[in-house]
Amino acid sequence: MTTPMTGLDTLPLFTNLSHTQRAAVAGVSRIETYEAGTRLFDEGGLADQCWVVQTGCVTVDTVVPQRGRVAVQSIGPGELLGWSWLVPPYRWHFGATVVSPTRAVVVDTAALRQLAGEDPALGYQLSLVLLEALLNRLQATRIRLLDLYRNPS
Amino acid sequence: MTWVPTPYRVATRTVETHDSATLALRPVAESLPAFRPGQFAMLYAHGVGEVPISVSAIPGDGTLVHTVRSVGAVSRALHDAAPGTVIGVRGPFGTAWRLDDVEDLLVVAGGIGLAPLRPVLAHPSKRTVFIAGARTPQDLLYTAELSHLSGVDTVLTVDHGDHDWNGRIGFVTEPLASIPLDPDRTTALLCGPEPMMRFCARTLLGRGVPAERIQVSLERNMQCGIGLCGHCQLGPLLLCRSGPVVGYPVAEPLLLTREL
Amino acid sequence: MNVVLGLDGLDALVGVLREEGHVVIGPVLRDDAITLAELSSAADLPSGWGVETGPGHYRVREREDAAVFGHSAGPQSWKRFLHPPRRTLVSSDSTGFHAARDDTPDYAFLGVRPCDLAAIAKLRQIVASKLPFVVAAQCTEPGEVCFCTSMGCGPGAGDGYDIALTERLDADGHRFLATPGTEAGAAVLDRLPGRVATKQDVALAEQDVATAARRMGRALPEVDLRDLLAANRDSAHWEAVAQRCLTCGNCTMVCPTCFCVSVEDTTDLDGNAERAERWASCFEIDFSHLHGGAVRTSGAARYRQWMTHKLGTWHDQFGTSGCVGCGRCIAWCPAGIDITEEAAALSQTTEHGGERR
Pick from C167, C146, C123: which is nearest to C26 by CA? Predict the structure, then answer.
């Protein structure tokens, strides 16, 4: 099932794509819904898609000895899940689990990459979209490193 | 007489987190004028000292409600105050959240910064989006109440989750960057650690919310509450009377100056 | 009506003010400095003593004449009477909270120099103390660190005095032109032995003050200081000052307008508690303490706070500058830091100097 355009039009993430460009992305995407507890991918697996969460929540985790599976980040409405498809070795660095009923746009990243290769203007805009999302994530993660809410006493 | 506190008695004490408690104070005899959301009182713990604490609820019956986080000698004494304890109160002091002409309200709180914003959430205007961050799920304030706010889109997020936490893990700027909002209708109220407010304000500017419709609540050492002691200066402001709530166009250059 | 008083008239002035119930405070020589203390007669005034000042320098010197007001600002100011170094605010016990009794005496200040007269007005915007009876002494002999002309605070007395005196010693003797500023001042003058002032007396006094205005030891740069400081929050110059500044806080203690206080709590074994304010300084680390630590830890930030408040943000808070140009902060700085030089240095390194943005 391809993504209805309304699904992409309302996402701040894609604000800077033209209508045609959004349609192109929609052409390589589908909508999926997931039950809480669904495992989306595991660390080390082949990274060949990414998700834009529309509703619900997914957590990104990794396994730490003695602590089990530790969630380090959640992905909520409007946010992008999955980056490892962008760079070698195209394997997931973390795992991901759905924690509340979730509806997401699932993008076929091989097809997306091909689209971007054929249309450099789209490729450029997509790079900016990804970069902005990544930058938000990076900056938020850096702020979390500050442990701002700790009790100073 | 402005230095003389008015005696209030702790009516109830509610433990919020491992280091924060909410005190409901009833006047022993005379009561102080009504507080507005965002304003603060100077709370005096007998023989220990006085600290500025925002009102965290305004029940409207003359009860003063303050959530106190134990971070020093005075706040520890207040935090530990058992029902019946007499607390000295001066106030109301400072500026309130400006809520006139608000269309869509966006409330972003970090840590104990949620306390001064809670009175705003209790009476949501039109469309209200509320994002709160905390260190861990156990550090989230008012959890029972917050999960049942009617007419408010609520996002709670923590820096570090645990196995029982099914909410969000991340910093408040992440939902802030992706929630649907209409920048032309949004009034944003931010309260939390200074870096958190700076990052949130910048995220909002990036989304097209005008600086004029972003308000932040600032904090400095306060001793008199009435512009006489000099401790709360931040550039041209005496925060006890020109603050704590300050418009972002005024606050931004001050927040970007180191050690101001 | 202007009158001319002799030393006997000055002494009578002290007497009348004491009779009226005032505690009369004026300059006296003590501990090799001109300090402020209660006067029992005009004989207590530092007749024949002048001062020599410079950056980090203050010495009393013997004058060649017997002038009683021939000295510039000393280590103390009238602040210590209007805004005492320590003051109890409130006490609390099992019966409740009690305001401290205001036992401020009914002061009369005698020999208030115009810079300090301006300082009293600024201080009264912040400290609600009883209005003292003020006898100003116009300045005819500025010191080396004085720059009241730059601040518009002298050497002639501005508003706020009950009586203004202008001292003169010449072939015609040692005398004081006395000008009433209020009805209370005029009423006091009526009771003193003296003669009606002539046009010549007034002209000489005006001339002496005008001459003093041209003999200021220092000046602030003629730019909008409020803009200059607001534009220079990030200036590298603050670090340069911090290399010399000891952050001792002397400048704030001697400043006649620095008003900041910290509140301290004390308790006794019976469970009674007291809250008192004491003079504080923005140079103290704890001054900007917030849970977790101080906001202004570097010397550069603390000096910037002091100077920016004094010359710049005071305008935002009180509609006026916080500086009167008395020069005390220069004389009593152990490192000899000179606020006029630092302002000039900032002004030279900024493109905003001289113009309002």
Answer: C167
**Which residue in B69, B112, B177 is closest to A136 by CB distance?**
B177
Of A10, A136, A150, the CB nearest to B174: A136
Type of residue at C283: F
Q: Which superfamily does B6-93 belong to?
A: Translation factors (2.40.30.10)
Which DSSP category does A14 fall into? G
Q: Of C225, C175, C189, which is closest to residue C67 (Cα–Cα)?
A: C175
H or E segment and range at residue A65:
none
Q: What are B's interface residues with C at a Cβ cutoff of 8 A? A: 1, 3-7, 28, 44, 46-50, 71-72, 75, 88, 219-221, 223-224, 227-231, 233, 235-238, 253, 257-260
**Alpha-carbon torsion angle B123, B129, B135, B138, nearest 10:** 50
Which of B135, B161, B168 has the CB atom closest to A149's CB atom?
Answer: B135
Domain ranges in chain B are 6-93, 104-217+247-253
Residue A147, chain C, CB below 8 Å: the answer is no
Q: What is the secondary structure of C242-310 as a DSSP string?
A: HTT-----HHHHH-SS---EEEEEEE-TTS-EEEEEEE--TTSGGGGEETTEES--SHHHHHHHHHHII
All structural domains of chain A with their residue ranges: 5-145
Q: With contacts defined as CB-CB under 8 Å, which chain A residues touch C289?
A: none
Topology annotation, domain A5-145? Jelly Rolls (2.60.120)
- Both tokens of residue B255? 């927040």
CB proximity list for A148: less than 8 A, separation 6 or greater: B110, B111, B192, B193, B195, B196
- Please report which confidence band the pLDDT of residue C357 belongs to, taking 50, 70 and 90 as the band edges: very low
Minimal Cβ distance to B134: which of A12, A143, A149: A149
Q: Which are the contacts of B33, defined by CB distance < 8 A and separation ≥ 6? A: B92
> C87 CA to chain B: closest CA distance, Å?
12
- pLDDT tens per residue across span C69-96: 999 999 999 999 999 999 999 999 988 9
Query: Does the distance separating the beta carbons of B224 and C271 come in below 8 Å?
Result: no
pLDDT(C193) > 50:
yes
* Cβ count within 10 A of residue C78: 21
ipTM value: 0.93
Gap between the terminal Cα atoms of chain B: 31
Question: Over its length of 260 residues, how does chain B's per-residue pLDDT go in tens digits?
Answer: 589 999 999 999 999 999 999 999 999 999 999 999 999 999 999 999 999 999 999 999 999 999 999 999 999 999 999 999 999 999 999 999 999 889 999 999 999 999 999 999 986 667 899 999 999 999 999 988 887 788 899 999 999 999 889 889 999 999 999 999 999 999 999 999 999 999 999 999 999 999 999 999 999 999 999 999 999 999 999 999 999 999 999 999 999 999 99
Do the Cβ atoms of B173 and A143 come within 8 Å? yes
Name the residue among A76, A25, A81, A27 with its Cα closest to residue A55. A76
CA C295, C300, C305, C306 dihedral sign is positive
User: In the CATH scheme, what is the code of domain B104-217+247-253?
Assistant: 3.40.50.80
Of all residues in chain C, the one with the smallest CA distance to A153 is: C292
Min Cα separation A153/chain C (Å) = 6
Instruction: Say what angle helices A120-145 and B194-206 make with each other, to 10 degrees.
Output: 160
